[in-house]
Design goal:
Blueprint lengths: L1 E4 L5 E3 L2 E11 L2 E10 L5 E11 L5 E2 L5 E3 L3 E2 L3 E9 L8 E8 L6 E7 L2
Antiparallel strand pairs: 1-3, 2-3, 3-4, 4-9, 5-6, 5-8, 5-10, 7-9, 10-11
Length: about 120
């Protein structure tokens, strides 16, 4: 197993921080390790995770990405770990865009430009 830095800046939206930390390579599989931080006054409930892969501007949505959360609810002022299983990229120019959707749609946050290597 190899661990590499995700090499992308954190994304912030409406008091939610999404931070890609590492990409684990296990054989031909890739797993993105990231965290969600809730800096608001209310807990956040994760509704779904959506992902797109491809060259910038031509990404295609991945059907039902596999992900695991430490818990479905992100407590106030806490950081929660998330792991997302990724397909092998088709080309070196492919980038991943990831969106964490919450039951409150105004709080959803997106992270783009993740290079899957």
């Amino acid at each position: 197993m190899d661990l590499v830095d995700a090499d992308v800046a954190p994304s912030r939206h409406n008091q939610v921080v999404l931070r890609a930390q590492k990409i684990a390579r296990i054989g031909n599989r890739r797993v993105l390790l990231l965290s969600i931080m809730d800096r608001s006054a209310d807990e956040l409930e994760v509704k779904s995770v959506r992902a797109w892969l491809g060259p910038a501007g031509a990404e295609r949505e991945l059907p039902r990405p596999t992900y695991r959360l430490r818990a479905k609810t992100v407590p106030v002022n806490e950081e929660m770990a998330v792991a997302v299983s990724l397909p092998k990229p088709l080309a070196s120019s492919d980038r991943l865009r990831l969106r964490i959707e919450f039951t409150d749609p105004e709080r959803s946050v997106e992270l783009a430009g993740i290079r899957v290597r």
